[in-house]
Amino acid sequence: MAWNVVIAGGGFGGLKAARELERVMPKQAARLMLVNEQNYSTYSPFLPEAAAGTLEPRHVVTPLRDILKRTYLRLGEIVGHDPEAKTVELAAKGGDQETVPYDQLLLALGSVSRVLPVPGLTEHAMGFKSLADAIVLRNRVVENLELANATQEHQRREELLTFVFVGGGYAGLEALAELQDFAADAMDSYPRARLHGMRWILVEAAPRVLPEIDQDLADYALRELRGRGIDIKLETQLKEVTANSATLSTGEVVPSTTVVWTAGVAPAPILRQLNVPLDERGRVPVDAHLRVHGLDSVWAIGDCAAAPDPRGGTCPPTAQHAVRQGPVAARNIAAELGIGTPEPFTYRSEASFVNLGRYKAVGRIGDRKFRGFPAWFLARSYHMSQIPGYARKAHAVLDWTASMPFKRDIAELGSVTQPKRLG
Ligand SMILES: Cc1cc2nc3c(=O)[nH]c(=O)nc-3n(C[C@H](O)[C@H](O)[C@H](O)COP(=O)(O)OP(=O)(O)OC[C@H]3O[C@@H](n4cnc5c(N)ncnc54)[C@H](O)[C@@H]3O)c2cc1C
Questions:
Q1: 108 CB contacts (<8 Å, ≥6 apart)?
Q2: Tens digit of pLDDT for each residue in 307-316?
Q3: What's the gap in Å between 272 CA and the centre of ligand 1?
């Protein structure tokens, strides 16, 4: 008899788990199924570069079918779960709904942007979490430069040329740094907008940015970004967003049509409908073997899980942790089915890097700290080793090489998904 193993989510953790299950489970022993919303996995550390145009957007995603050898890929969403019957509900792409039985279930559903009750936020601000977000943001920046170059109204030009990022974690900071760099180059093509100048603002509620790295490295990043003219407002909160303004806790009303919300992540909201235990932050609590508390056949990894961190507390929501948890969960699932022995998750993060654009970064490996170009080079080499698939590695190198001698591409492709009606 072959066991049914279902993996919900094909991002960093789910994909690694599927690959490991393919490796350790004999073909006849298990039917592997992976359910994902798209047929690709996104390499999110490269999203800022996709937004800035140094990487072609298609090259920051990897088609799952290129990587998976014998896992059955189903496109759609897991929308329900019955732990007693051991089934999940699959809303397949195309509209069909199906009940899928499992013997072992791995939840790797990731996270979404954490939204706070700020008036106007969901209506007027943008997130920065997916490839779609990166593409939309890039198009927005280019479109705003176009409009600012054409308008005669001072106030309108100011709204168009002011970009507000909220949240000083690594995702927000990297996106801001790359896009400001891109826009600064692109400005050469917009002489009237250039006369007015742009404003890039980072708003952070805490007294510091980059809680993920040491204070001195965060200070270096702050100095570097301030040196580029980025206005970093610490201990400040976003109070309200409208179509053309952002109101801050200092009382300042910033005229801006672009507010990017990068203030943290929350576990995938669908978890609330999956009949699994959740902690106070909405994550699925798991033990050191990544098994869900109280459910023998269900496992959880990555951003959607609250997994014990060997350093204390729970693991932070990073790809670094998700890609290491995936194979451990896979081997523990195999052990549960009689192949191999179970093992705890023992990975201790030794390195972290934050890209600051312009060939600069900050980071740490063990006790050694790096700043500037050496940090950027190390970070890029690390990411090159991690992006799945040889084709994607080659494309990334070619994109970076080709982007060096040429001007930035400022084609605004926002309308390509809305072709004109026939006739
Ligand atoms: C801009 C940015 C930069 C980042 N940079 C770094 C970095 O440099 N280093 C680092 O370590 N981390 C980084 N991260 C964090 C990293 O992306 C996450 O920690 C990582 O993606 C978590 O992996 P995961 O497998 O848990 O979830 P994900 O990789 O998000 O995968 C979850 C998958 O589940 C799918 N899914 C969701 N709901 C359903 C459903 N109901 N049914 C089926 N499928 C579903 C999603 O489509 C997705 O494919 C960055 C994040 C962002 C946004």
A1: 7, 8, 9, 10, 11, 13, 14, 17, 300, 301, 302, 304, 322, 326
A2: 999 989 999 9
A3: 18
